[in-house]
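The instructor's notes for this session suggest beginning with a concrete chain rather than abstract definitions. Hand out the sequence below and ask the class to guess, before any prediction is shown, which regions might be ordered.
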Amino acid sequence: MVNSIHETPINDMAAMPLPLPRAGGRHRQGAEAGWVIASSKGAFLAPRTIPLAFPSLVHLDDAVVKAHARMRAIEGLNEATVRWTGTSYRMFRRFLIADAKYRNGFLGGELEAQMRILEAWIGWLREDGRTSVTVNNYWRGLSLVFARINRERGMVNPLIFLAAPRFSRRQARYLTRDAAERVVKFVQHHQWSSSFEQARNLAIVGLLLLAGLRRAEAVRLNFAHVSVANSTLLIVKGKGRYGGKDRTCYMTPQLRSILTSYEQQRRGLETASPSYLLTVHGDRGISAAVIRHLLQRVSEALDLPVTPHALRHTYATLLRQSGVADRISIDLMGHTSLETLQRYSHVYSGEHAAAVEKVILDIEVPSRDEHQW
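After discussion, reveal the predicted structure:
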């Protein structure tokens, strides 16, 4: 581990001209970067930070490792979030390794140069065929890493001076009610290696489709957190800031039957694993790969885009179609806003026409026969 880094003394930075954050930047990010708004003859930003400068890429790597340690130990962030930021940094690191000019320019700590290099990185990602959503994800992940380095070392985060790459949010995939029923029936009647695997796979699909669990939530689900008797599922540290938030999901009658059948098969394994969903050998909990392979098989057999997120979107849509209030759906889905819920629930073809048929006033209107000439 590297213990020393090249730093410019704060006093030497006092008169250093630096650009203002771009329009649309968040005030909170500016505060985190160590800037103070002052006003005498006008508003300006006074620096209290040092440049993001390192003698070598190894020194930057060390700072990132420590930033990840902070995310885990101090902030308690979800491990998936830490991995995402790590992937984002690796993509940026790969770009720096590919061009010594960019690498040396970024490590040198000159802010204007760093801004140009970050924009060049965005172009590099797009040329590599990355989608606009992926580019934005990498940008946000890298910004989180540099924000932690800023907090730990007082080094300015250059990404706050640039607008994040824009992207158009695609309409997420979901299944119609008929397609969802086909998925369940396929898993029920397919010839699996054992009755346990059949019940387990049906439980996986049921948890995603009829309770809206995310893939990671299903993988981490603990047996002690499932109560068929009370029709409840306790999701511990789901998606969210500060390590994720807990929520309670409730079983539909059909999911309750599916899980009752699975638990009967599970008891026959006499396992000591605390995980709810087990491998076919029953010695440990499943991995995300088990769910991925299961849904790939279903997708190929039915020629449908069946993914964990598509099943979750379908659950949100079924809630809306069943007349469940938005405020309840938000809690069941683990969302924090109505806007997010609206992205998850969809309107099926024909629902608009069926909906307007319900608008009836108590008035006299000509009958259909009266319109015939």
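Then share the key points. The chain is about 50% helix and 5% strand. Confidence is low (pLDDT under 50) at residues 1-47, 337-349, 351-366.
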